[in-house]
Design brief:
Blueprint (H helix, E strand, L loop, with lengths): L2 H13 L1 H6 L3 H32 L8 H24 L8 H11 L3 H13 L7 H11 L3 H9 L3 H7 L1 H16 L1
Length: 182
């Protein structure tokens, strides 16, 4: 069991000891959950590193020193840990195994079709494009960058744009799922 699984096991044992006691195999559950958390952290950290490196590339990225590179990577990792642990680690109801909870969430969560219809409406009536604050909220709700939503609206066919960015959509769905487990 990794450090994240141990931290969650301690937290759940304090917050919901009766639920942990009812689990058939709490070690296996928290091992799997810890691995899930670590995967999310690595993925989000890589995205944050890429985004910050991209921003630096517009300036003097080639002048970044070794220590600045290490600091940028460590900062991305810490931010990713904080985000993922806040979204997942303190789940209050471990009633369902993680895979069953995800399956149930997939069946009941808003369909990606809603996002496609939204983009098509924005294309049909560009003057209806939401304010920056509303667009940021939509991005937060769907767990995607604002630039992703803007790219979808600018794409000739929003559905094709989503298909091209399926990996990002899958990651966003995982983040939304983990948020709701909280």
């Amino acid at each position: 069991m990794n450090q994240y699984g141990r931290r969650m096991m301690r937290a759940w044992s304090q917050r919901a000891p009766e639920r942990v006691a009812q689990m058939e195999n709490p070690d296996a559950f928290f091992t799997q959950l810890g691995q899930e958390v670590e995967g999310q952290i690595l993925s989000l950290s890589a995205q944050l590193e890429a985004n910050s490196a991209g921003m630096l590339a517009t300036g003097s990225f080639s002048e970044e020193t070794y220590l600045q590179d290490v600091a940028r990577r460590m900062t991305a990792r810490r931010i990713a840990e904080e985000v993922v642990m806040n979204q997942l680690a303190w789940i209050s109801d471990p009633a369902l195994p993680l895979d069953e909870a995800r399956e149930e969430w997939n069946q009941t969560s808003p369909s990606i079709e809603n996002l496609i219809r939204w983009a098509e409406r924005m294309q049909d009536a560009p003057d209806l494009m939401p304010s920056t604050a509303d667009l940021e909220q939509k991005a937060k709700d769907w767990a995607v960058p604002v630039e992703f939503l803007e790219g979808m609206v600018q794409a000739e066919i929003p559905r094709a744009y989503l298909n091209e960015h399926q990996a990002m959509l899958d990651e966003a769905a995982t983040i939304r799922f983990l948020r709701e487990l909280h």
